[in-house]
Amino acid sequence: xxxxxxxxxxxxxxxxxxxxxxxxxxxxxxxxxxxxxxxxxxxxxxxxxxxxxxxxxxxxxxxxxxxxxxxxxxxxxxxxxxxxxxxxxxxxxxxxxxxxxxxxxxxxxxxxxxxxxxxxxxxxxxxxxxxxxxxxxxxxxxxxxxxxxxxxxxxxxxxxxxxxxxxxxxxxxxxxxxxxxxxxxxxxxxxxxxxxxxxxxxxxxxxxxxxxxxxxxxxxxxxxxxxxxxxxxxxxxxxxxxxxxxxxxxxxxxxxxxxxxxxxxxxxxxxxxxxxxxxxxxxxxxxxxxxxxxxxxxxxxxxxxxxxxxxxxxxxxxxxxxxxxxxxxx
Length: 330
Hints:
Layout: H1 2-23, E1 25-31, H2 38-45, H3 48-51, E2 55-61, H4 64-72, E3 78-82, H5 83-91, E4 96-105, E5 110-114, E6 131-134, H6 139-151, E7 159-162, H7 165-174, E8 179-182, H8 184-193, E9 198-200, E10 212-219, H9 220-225, H10 227-246, H11 251-258, H12 262-268, E11 273-274, H13 280-295, H14 306-311, H15 317-322
Parallel strand pairs: 1-2, 1-3, 6-7, 6-8
Antiparallel strand pairs: 3-10, 4-10, 4-11, 5-8, 5-9
Helix pairs in contact: 2-10, 5-13, 7-8, 11-12
Pfam family, one: NMT1
Organism: Bradyrhizobium arachidis
Keywords: Signal
């Protein structure tokens, strides 16, 4: 009888644990498909979400802006986005919040041009007077602005064409546009479609002007109502970061998902900084983007203090609870 009771008690405990784990259901919306989201992709592929008791459903959208809209509509608990959609949301009075900044780069977004179209890829100023496509309201548009600053040009020196990423390579190959600004993978597609007639603009010196931050966004409602889901999700991201920084073979985990050879992933992400945490440059970069958006007439200035507004959308508590050394905000 004691054995039976012990077995029943164990079953009850296991059943309770299973129920608890089943309650950690989460939905993550990605802003596109690619190695930009390497950290959460690795967390999925290596089973780190499951180890934390998270049953994760995912969906992919054309951009971080679209993924964030899924979050704000309530159809997702989290979204993987760059910092630019977060800035535009803040200036529109919306309140998605960042609970993780898990990687950064300055060189993955590229500006591609036809090498037979009169633009010199080695001369940034040769973009003057050209039609450059990107997705308006994303980090692509912001990168163009910072690249023009690097080139000594102004926003009025080029014409921005709002175009879906899936159409950029074809539009450039046909000559509908002179160039586009988007991911390295999109540039690679354009190079294949054009038979090698597409070149990348030089990015020498871009680090001073541009850094993109990859974020895990959520809402204050999710933080309040699902704190265990938030904690478990962040724990999975920390595990994925460790895997990436200690295992050279990590690209194999995501190669099939993004249809890219592991060696190409390793090369493309060689300049990424994979580190979950928040530092002051993140805040400063968001303020810089917001000031650009306001000056360009893309958004209205907020009624209150701009840095204070953007800082309020960074919820560092869950990260600090797990790794206090990873939060260095002033």
